[in-house]
């Protein structure tokens, strides 16, 4: 077994951070290409959106189980195999004859990326302790937020000047480079393996989900990121069909959203020692007020810049709250790092992949009015959960010393 060498610890940490955005890159880089893919593959917009939903649902469901696998069998070999599968399927999508083949490849990518991300999140809990662990884990969502910043921005230019397949060439080369670097510098980090048997796994799941602060947090994360996904799935059609602008503008619009999420994540890290419940509640109240203003100004013809101003504020607060609660959830049970990380992210992805697809298609979000309604729905659910479970959340956070 190849163990992580002490002298490679810093390089391996950089590589782990470089792989954390892989789920976002695979999710966001081809968003500006949705209209072109539908035309080129001679299929509907719903089918193109479904390529994203299949990936997200598979990624989410897989994480519910892969945590137990990597806690039992280790991180390194599983991670290497998963990167290889991701790289091969990225190339396969380029030559797919129709959208139905892409459905299958995206299914495989969802599984592979779930292993990669759970392994890399567990890396920081394996290698670091105390304040260093807290520092690095709070950086995870900040680093992850680079994907929504860079991916659609890059994807907009790739679409404009090359075409939709260029996005998957990018993913192929990214995967290949990371595979070679991981083989050279990374290694196994798990210190004690958990038994892989059904009774033990069920026992761990029951333990984690029996804590209200953890379970409610996972649900909150799902509704929180639903807002971002509805925006991501809708903005190419809003920009290109409603405002008749180019895919590059879609990329810049997604870039603005990504910057907001990134800055929100930074704020969450900077305010990590502020009262836990209070900062969550205040941020969500700001979101609700902004969404209401967005709703009531929908008939004022404020244009794309006005729409994006509201989006920026809502996504800034989303990045903040997501960072705060996700950091709490994945560090809640360090002895079951892979499983807790998998459940937190997995359930979150299942929730927002299902909700975002339903909302984007049921509401047919193609303007400010529809987007505002989707925001108000998600924010309203989050605020309701925070109010209902305030005593349980606050008491458990106090026990954890947050």
TrEMBL record:
Intracellular or extracellular location(s): Membrane
One Pfam family matching this protein: MFS_1
Keywords carried by this UniProt record: Membrane, Transmembrane, Transmembrane helix, Transport
Superkingdom of the source species: Bacteria
Parts of the chain that traverse the membrane: 12-32, 52-73, 80-101, 107-124, 136-154, 166-187, 208-239, 245-268, 280-298, 304-330, 342-363, 369-389
Any single Gene Ontology cellular-component annotation: plasma membrane
Molecular function in Gene Ontology: sodium:proton antiporter activity
Membrane topology: Multi-pass membrane protein
One of the GO BP terms on file: xenobiotic detoxification by transmembrane export across the plasma membrane
Protein name stated in the entry: Multidrug effflux MFS transporter
């Amino acid at each position: 077994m190849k163990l992580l060498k002490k002298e490679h610890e810093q390089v391996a940490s950089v590589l782990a951070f470089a792989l954390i955005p892989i789920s976002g890159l695979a999710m966001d880089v081809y968003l500006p290409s949705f209209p072109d893919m539908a035309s080129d593959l001679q299929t509907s917009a719903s089918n193109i959106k479904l390529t994203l939903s299949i990936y997200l649902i598979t990624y989410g469901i897989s994480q519910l189980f892969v945590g137990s696998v990597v806690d039992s069998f280790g991180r390194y070999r599983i991670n290497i195999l998963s990167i290889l599968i991701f790289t091969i399927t990225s190339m396969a999508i380029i030559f797919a004859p129709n959208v139905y083949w892409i459905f299958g490849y995206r299914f495989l990518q969802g599984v592979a990326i779930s292993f990669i991300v759970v392994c890399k999140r567990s890396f920081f809990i394996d290698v670091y302790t105390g304040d260093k662990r807290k520092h690095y884990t709070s950086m995870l969502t900040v680093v992850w937020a680079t994907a929504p910043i860079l991916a659609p921005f890059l994807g907009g230019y790739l679409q404009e000047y090359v075409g939709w397949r260029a996005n998957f060439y990018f993913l192929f080369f990214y995967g290949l480079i990371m595979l070679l670097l991981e083989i050279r510098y990374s290694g196994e980090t798990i210190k004690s393996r958990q038994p892989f048997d059904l009774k033990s796994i069920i026992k761990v799941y029951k333990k984690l989900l029996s804590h209200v602060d953890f379970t409610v947090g996972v649900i909150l994360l799902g509704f929180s990121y639903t807002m971002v996904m509805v925006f991501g799935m809708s903005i190419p059609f809003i920009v290109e069909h409603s405002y008749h602008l180019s895919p590059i503008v879609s990329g810049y619009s997604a870039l603005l959203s990504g910057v907001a999420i990134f800055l929100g994540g930074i704020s969450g890290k900077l305010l990590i020692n502020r009262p836990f419940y209070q900062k969550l509640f205040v941020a969500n109240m700001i979101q609700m007020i902004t969404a209401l203003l967005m709703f009531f100004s929908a008939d004022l013809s404020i244009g794309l810049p006005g729409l994006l101003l509201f989006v920026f504020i809502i996504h800034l607060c989303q990045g903040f709250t997501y960072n705060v609660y996700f950091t709490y959830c994945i560090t809640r049970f360090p002895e079951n790092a892979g499983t807790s990380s998998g459940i937190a992210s997995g359930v979150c992805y299942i929730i927002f992949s299902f909700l975002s697809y339903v909302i984007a298609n049921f509401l047919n979000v193609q303007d400010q009015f529809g987007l505002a309604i989707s925001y108000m729905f998600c924010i309203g659910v989050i605020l309701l959960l925070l109010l209902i479970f305030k005593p349980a959340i606050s008491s458990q956070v106090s026990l954890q010393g947050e």
